[in-house]
Amino acid sequence: MNDLTPHQLSYLAVAHVRVQLAKRGVIAIDAPAFFEYDLITQGGLRIEVKSSRMRNLEHPYWAFTNTREGAYTKGAARHQRTDRKCDYFILVGFRDYEFPTFFVLPKEIIGMRRTIHLPYNRRYDGRYTSYRDLWEPLTNVERRLHPS
User: Fold this and answer.
1) What's the CATH fold of domain 6-145?
2) Rounded to the nearest 5 degrees, what angle is found at the Cα of 132, between the Cα atoms of 1 and 118?
């Protein structure tokens, strides 16, 4: 994974999220590049996907950045905190070639935080522990918005 650029890692993370959602019966498409989120579901849920590769192998962790990036943001605004126009954040942590780890968080949990640090340790019992692989709230909301 270390040979991928940040943009390539981001595309890979979005693809992994799309697969995870599809396995749960949720269809998501890419949002246009100038939107402040990455995916939109058939029920209208807006999802921002953040990716990170493992850092510091002695005490491994992921660092996810919540700043504006892209061709439509210039200068200092690119590094400012942002109140995203999304409903959920899905944080995708990569470690070498292992299957990624997912944290599915409602927007309110992230708020205006600029950086989110998550340890790799499976025994981690911090504020985001309960959101590891927690797809049910997102899929339940989606089912209410778009009943089959």
Assistant:
1) Trna Endonuclease; Chain: A, domain 1 (3.40.1350)
2) 60
Q: What is the pTM of this model?
A: 0.85
pLDDT digit string, tens, across residues 35-94: 889 999 999 999 999 999 988 777 888 889 887 654 444 555 545 555 678 999 999 999
Residue 6, classed as helix, strand or coil, is helix
Q: String of b and e for 38-56 (b: at least 16 CB within 10 Å)?
A: bbbbebebbbbbbbbbbee
DSSP output for 8-44: HHHHHHHHHHHHHHHHTT--EEEPPTTSSSSEEETT-
CA distance 47 to 137: 13
